[in-house]
Structure formats: structure tokens, C-alpha cells
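Hey, can you fold this one?
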Amino acid sequence: MNLDEFQDEEVTKVIEYGPPKSGKTALAAELAKYGFHLHWLDLESGRKTLRNPLILPPEFRKNIDIINIPDHQNYPIAIQTVKAIFKDATPKKICFAHGAINCAHCTKNPEAKWSTLDLSKFTKRDILVLDSLTQLGQSAINFAVKKEIEKQGENYKFEWDDYRVQGYALDNVCGKIQVAPINVIVISHEIDTEKDDKAPERLAPVAGTRNHSKTTAKYFDEVVYTYIMNGAHKVANSTTFKPTVQTGGRTGVQLDKLPKHTLLPLFRPETLPDLLAGKEVKIDWEKEGL
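Sure. Predicted structure:
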């Protein structure tokens, strides 16, 4: 099969990262205004930001399904749940209280709240949001050392093999995201991948260790950086943005050239001309049967 005959699926994988409070959550949530259904894997209470009416007007909240995964050091549930979500295409029933699939405790509670996630039913209108890869990495290593900490207490020192297990778990998830036939946005923070203080900084999305974070962007179609400059939120994804910041994309869309910050043309390229012209964009999902 030659290149002209090969038809890629119309899905996009985006990783967006930056310092805290630089607009990462708001940038992803803004897609709800265009009628996208965001299935939000909430590992670190991002829903608190989503409730801010300045970020997301209340009328668009119905387009976001919050899947609560309350991960922390003593309860590293996120890596188990996220790996299970991508393991196969079967529907996953996730309890709101514990973020566990088919939670034994909540199954006995008739008042328990659940979310059902079925990736096999995703259309191009659906986007899975993982918030965040930073916390998922913490979950992976906390899960790896859980038994040792229970034996030795909190003075346990992480070993090289623990970080190897963490990296393997993150590669497992990101590799499956890369080939999944669905739209995905992964949110992360920034890390300077250069160990030497004298070397120029090289920022990349946090994905476990510095070394592992250097290469995680390879799993995604678009690498988007959010930052604040002169008191304003900024977005960049061009490969030529800065040599010290890992960015790039396969679509050729330069988000920093748009009059307003949005990820929309990454998922709907046909909207780019209107966005560049500053025109209002509406998507007729009903006309598309969605």
C-alpha cells in the first residue's frame, strides 16, 4: 500500500504541559464550548478549576464527564485504573469515591456513584483527557514501592529498579494512547531535563524521571506548551518556538498564530481559516450524525 492509499483515522493525540497555573486545564476545557464530549480522568482535582465560570461557563459543563480518581501516596490507584482503561475495549465501571474499576466496596453501597467509560463507543466528538501525567507517574512509582514502604516505613530509599518499573508503566500507558483509535489530551507539568546546572535548560513534559521525560513526546501528534509572559497566558506548539522548550506537531497548525488560544484546529483542521480570521466557529454535530 502506497502513501496515497493509506488512510489514517481522524483522531489526534495531544500532550500539553507548562508551569502551574499557566492555563493547561482551561485550554483543554475550552473544547467543551464547541460541543466536544470530554471524558476527564481527574487525578488531581482539576474539576475545581473547571467549576470556575470564567474558565468554563456553566452551560457547557454538561459536555464534561468527570471520572474521579483520588490518587495519593498511600493509595496509588491511578496507575492501576488507567492501565485497565487502555487494556481492552470493554466498558469500565469506575466508582467516584475511590476511582477503582468494579470497586468491591462501592458495589455493596446502593448509593455509590459511578462513571462508565467505553472507549469502543468514542466518536470524533469524544476526547479522553488525562489530568495529569505528572500524577500518573507519581502513582506508578508509589505503587511499585508500596510493599517495601509497608515493610520498611517512609524512610525507604527509592532504588534504580523502582524507577525502571515506573518508566515501564508509563510507556505502557503512553504506547496504548498512541495507537488507540480515539482523541486524547494528556496534561502534564514541565521539567528541566538537563541535570547539569551549567547546561542550558531543556524543558519537557513531566513523565517520571528526567531521562524518561525526554522522550515521552514521541507518543503524541502535538506537543503544546503553555506559559505566562507579560501577565498574559500564551500557547506554543511550533517546532521552532524555542530550542530550550520541547514543542512540535504533525498538523502544521501554529497555535500561537491564532487570535485566541484554542486546541480546536488540532482536532478540526477545517476550522483553521475562520479561526485565523477571528470569526466565530460553530460545529454542526447533528448534521454529522453525532
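Residues 31-188 form a domain with the Rossmann fold fold (CATH 3.40.50). Let me know if you want another pass with a different chain boundary.
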